[in-house]
């Protein structure tokens, strides 16, 4: 880490430090990234196109026409990035494997050159005393599988299980922590219903079918990985969900109903089948009212209900729910109930997301209460701000420090309330390709100059490193 930058600031303290220090000394600290957002090298070593490579070529789909073709060039600069993680004192690094890099086209044998990259990454992490946390799917579906129907098609779940086993066969002797899917809500809702992320489809029924097949793919992958672990290597399997609170904007019946629906399609439609082997009855009824039936076959829910070892929770913001539109109408042009997010007038990040750490604590407490028995890891949390580097490229991002400190304090408060939370991964290690926002939104605690690819740890990186050291040394002695 750049010691010049580190000594340019006294140790940053926040009003949340006392609460953060209640975290146990054994708490795991990490950072997270995803393959398409940082790797680049989209045409190298046998990698084929993903839905994001295709979507980025759609005029107007991504701000400034940006693509992930180069991104942070992590594919070639990986050793340097692992050295940054080591200097930060991370316990763990959560990264995703690029499906079209490992299994070009989404079918057939593994691509040795693609797997070799992740082989090298895992070995370098372990040599640096950093635990590798593998996410198998972070939205980069091979384009050929989308052409065959994508996640609304049941066959994609079967293909995902095949791919998961290919990756495990190569890395499972050294990787204990596996996440099947990252944020299936985004894949289904943003990709297939709202059309604002890849593959850019707008079909409500297709999105609901995608939900079921994503969850089915998760369950099938869990089965495959457990069966493949014949050598008894350490193995922890989980899934990562982006969750939020769902509260009515007012006490009106319409707003209460909108909040129930938001909770149903945002939280319970995923956690209920994962935990209890059933879809929520009210969600099923809501879908039936729109002429949609989830494509559940005999045995599917038992597969989805496969034993989990961890649950990943991603959190960024919350909104209130309104059951009427801006004109006061309770139904849209097709007669469907209105569901609209309402802001509270709180400070916002550069994404326009309100900063709500108290809701984060409330969410974690609710998940631990309603879906007990599995340790929770915060697998993503962070914020984009309008970073302004000085002449040396150093960013004094006090706003991000405050965001991270307040949200880590929320984790500590949820632990105090009895929720079994065992780790926190900041999003993100690096500034990167922020999906449909291109390169304008910077979430990293390390600045990336996209022209030179120079990495410069921001003030938030130094604060995160110092917080990790302090909690390790002085944190609570409880497990």
Automatic annotation (TrEMBL):
Q: Tell me which InterPro entries the record gives.
A: GH, GH_1_N_CS, Glyco_hydro_1, Glyco_hydro_1_AS, Glyco_hydro_1_beta-glucosidase
Class of enzymatic activity (EC top level): hydrolase
Q: Which GO terms describe its cellular component?
A: cytosol
| Keyword tags | Carbohydrate metabolism, Cellulose degradation, Glycosidase, Hydrolase, Polysaccharide degradation
- PROSITE patterns this protein is in? GLYCOSYL_HYDROL_F1_1, GLYCOSYL_HYDROL_F1_2
Q: Which reaction does it catalyse?
A: Hydrolysis of terminal, non-reducing beta-D-glucosyl residues with release of beta-D-glucose
EC number(s) in its UniProt entry?
Answer: 3.2.1.21
Q: Where does substrate bind?
A: 37, 138, 182, 316, 427, 434-435
Any single GO molecular-function term of the entry would be: beta-glucosidase activity
Active-site residues annotated for this sequence: 183, 380
Protein name (record): Beta-glucosidase
Top-level lineage group? Bacteria
Q: What is an example of a Pfam family matching this protein?
A: Glyco_hydro_1
């Amino acid at each position: 880490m750049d010691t010049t930058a580190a000594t340019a600031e006294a140790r940053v303290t926040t009003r949340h430090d006392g609460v953060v220090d209640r975290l146990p000394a054994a708490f795991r600290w990490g950072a997270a990234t995803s393959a398409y957002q940082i790797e680049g090298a989209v045409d190298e070593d046998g990698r084929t196109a993903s839905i994001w490579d295709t979507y980025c070529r759609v005029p107007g789909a991504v701000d400034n026409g940006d693509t992930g073709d180069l991104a942070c060039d992590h594919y070639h600069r990986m050793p340097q990035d692992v050295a940054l993680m080591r200097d930060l004192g991370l316990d763990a690094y959560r990264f995703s494997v690029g499906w079209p890099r490992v299994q070009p086209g989404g079918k057939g044998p593994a691509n040795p050159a693609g797997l070799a990259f992740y082989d090298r990454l895992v070995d370098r992490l372990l040599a640096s005393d950093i635990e590798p946390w593998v996410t198998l799917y972070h939205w980069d579906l091979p384009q050929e599988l989308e052409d065959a129907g994508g996640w609304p098609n049941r066959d994609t779940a079967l293909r995902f299980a095949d791919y998961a086993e290919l990756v495990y066969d190569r890395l499972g002797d050294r990787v204990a922590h596996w996440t099947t899917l990252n944020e299936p809500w985004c894949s289904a809702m943003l990709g297939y219903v709202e059309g604002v992320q890849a593959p850019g489809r707008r079909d409500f029924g297709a999105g609901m079918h995608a939900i079921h097949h994503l969850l089915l793919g998760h369950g099938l992958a869990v089965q495959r990985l457990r069966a493949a672990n014949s050598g008894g290597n350490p193995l922890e399997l989980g899934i990562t969900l982006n969750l939020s609170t769902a509260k009515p904007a007012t006490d009106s019946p319409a707003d209460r109903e909108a909040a129930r629906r938001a909770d149903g399609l945002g939280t319970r439609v995923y956690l209920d089948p994962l935990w209890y082997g059933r879809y929520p009855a009210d969600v099923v009824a809501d879908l039936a009212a729109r002429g949609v039936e989830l494509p559940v076959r005999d045995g599917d829910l038992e597969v989805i209900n496969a034993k989990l070892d961890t649950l990943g929770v991603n959190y960024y913001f919350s909104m209130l729910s309104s059951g009427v539109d801006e004109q006061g109408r309770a139904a849209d042009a097709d007669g469907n109930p209105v569901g609209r997010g309402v802001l509270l007038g709180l400070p916002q990040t550069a994404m326009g997301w309100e900063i709500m750490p108290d809701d984060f604590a409330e969410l974690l407490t609710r998940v631990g209460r309603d879906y007990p028995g599995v340790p929770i890891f915060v697998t993503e949390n962070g914020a984009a701000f309008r970073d302004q580097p000085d002449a040396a490229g150093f960013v004094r991002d006090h706003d991000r420090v405050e965001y991270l400190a307040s949200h880590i304090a929320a984790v500590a408060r949820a632990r105090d309330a009895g929720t079994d939370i065992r780790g926190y991964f900041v999003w993100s290690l690096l500034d990167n390709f922020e999906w449909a926002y291109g390169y304008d939104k910077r979430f990293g605690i390390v600045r990336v100059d996209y022209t030179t690819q120079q990495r410069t740890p921001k003030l938030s990186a130094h604060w995160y490193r110092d917080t990790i050291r302090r909690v390790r040394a002085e944190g609570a002695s409880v497990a």
